[in-house]
């Protein structure tokens, strides 16, 4: 595998957003790893849903079989596929809950199979980074700490600015309170790790509005706003503020992450709202 581009690690790549980001990276000759409970499922998803040729997968993608809740599995995916003594440059987490179902709860009427999957998944990634550091693998090939990109959800903006249409409040804060709470707990774990600075170099939180399936509309249709994830740091770029919208496509979100965060850069420390 020969490439001078930054290396990437993907978690939750069979999901629409992370899968689209991974596909965009592979088309542009980026070397990547991915953790999947069923590697064949991920390969089939990439070839059928995103038209990635099998030779490209064989050359650029290393799929590790495993579970994001098992540290030993996660560690393998965090090692650079081009430099085994280093970490990947960017970690992209599309971890999310599955098995949505109604449950007997007035506060959280819709449940998911694991109501803490995002929080514990990211916690496991950070623990795996710490474990690798103890083994002498603590930086990327460029000598820095990796960037962690996590797909979250709008609502509860730390800046106090509103990032959800009022009509969506009952959906996010009541109907989907269980997965919403999990995403926000995940964000807090990431902020804590960033403040310590011993596992990750920086982070980007992606907050798409309601996610839609279907063909991409193109990056020109995606509106992006942002606020700082960690408050109270002086002398930084002035916040653009969040955007508000009703929906955004999963493929557009994934391709935006690749084009803006991976390729262009400059989003470190920001929480980015995306919508059409």
Automatic annotation (TrEMBL):
PROSITE patterns: PROKAR_LIPOPROTEIN. GO terms for molecular function: biliverdin reductase [NAD(P)H] activity; riboflavin reductase (NADPH) activity. SUPFAM superfamilies: NAD(P)-binding Rossmann-fold domains. It comes from the Eukaryota. PANTHER family: FLAVIN REDUCTASE (NADPH). Belongs to the avfA family. This is Uncharacterized protein.
């Amino acid at each position: 595998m020969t490439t001078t581009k930054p290396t990437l690690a993907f978690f939750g790549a069979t999901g629409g957003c992370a899968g689209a980001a991974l596909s965009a990276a592979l088309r542009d000759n980026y070397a990547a790893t991915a953790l999947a409970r069923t590697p064949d499922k991920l390969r089939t998803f990439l070839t059928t849903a995103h038209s990635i040729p099998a030779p490209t997968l064989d050359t650029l993608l290393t799929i590790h079989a495993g579970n994001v809740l098992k540290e030993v599995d996660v560690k393998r995916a965090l090692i650079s596929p081009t430099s085994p003594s280093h970490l990947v440059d960017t970690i992209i987490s599309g971890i999310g809950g599955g098995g949505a179902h109604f449950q007997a709860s007035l506060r959280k009427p819709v449940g998911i199979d694991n109501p803490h999957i995002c929080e514990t998944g990211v916690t496991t990634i950070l623990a795996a980074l710490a474990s690798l550091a103890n083994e002498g693998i603590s930086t990327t090939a460029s000598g820095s700490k990796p960037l962690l990109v996590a797909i979250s959800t709008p609502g509860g903006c730390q800046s106090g600015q509103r990032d959800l249409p009022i009509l969506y409040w009952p959906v996010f804060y009541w109907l989907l309170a269980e997965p919403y709470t999990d995403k926000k707990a995940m964000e807090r774990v990431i902020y804590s790790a960033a403040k310590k600075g011993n596992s990750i170099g920086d982070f980007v939180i992606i907050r798409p509005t309601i996610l839609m399936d279907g063909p991409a509309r193109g990056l020109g249709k995606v509106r992006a706003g942002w606020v700082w994830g960690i408050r109270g740091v002086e002398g930084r770029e002035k916040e653009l503020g969040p955007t508000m919208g009703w929906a955004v496509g999963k493929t557009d979100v994934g391709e935006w992450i690749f084009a803006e965060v991976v390729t262009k850069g400059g989003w470190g420390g920001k929480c980015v709202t995306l919508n059409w």
